[in-house]
Amino acid sequence: MFAVIKTGGKQYRVAKDDVIVVEKLEGDAGAKITFDSVLMTGDGKTVKLGKDVAGVKVTGELIETKKGDKVTVFKKRRRNTYRRKIGHRQTESHIKITAIG
Questions:
Q1: How many CA atoms lie within 13 A of 66 on its CB side?
Q2: pLDDT score recorded for residue 44
Q3: Phi first, then psi: what are they for 93, rounded to 5°?
Q4: Count of domains forming the chain
């Protein structure tokens, strides 16, 4: 069985025991997370959408919260001696899906 959930402005297709990387969620390692915004569920034969998935919840466990890979932003204008180099590391949470339904 799988589900499509929405968190952090993005959609993720998850199944039981999957580990997903999402934008930072509040909580300590080992905390239980519940996703109420389930968009779709399916079991390989049937698919449920819209009103059929009302009340379905996906639960998971917060494994860790850490910074992701560095993204380098480099701006340059040729022949103008204009160069700017900055970096950014987004905070992300790793979640293990424990149950769907």
A1: 8
A2: 85
A3: -115, 140
A4: 1
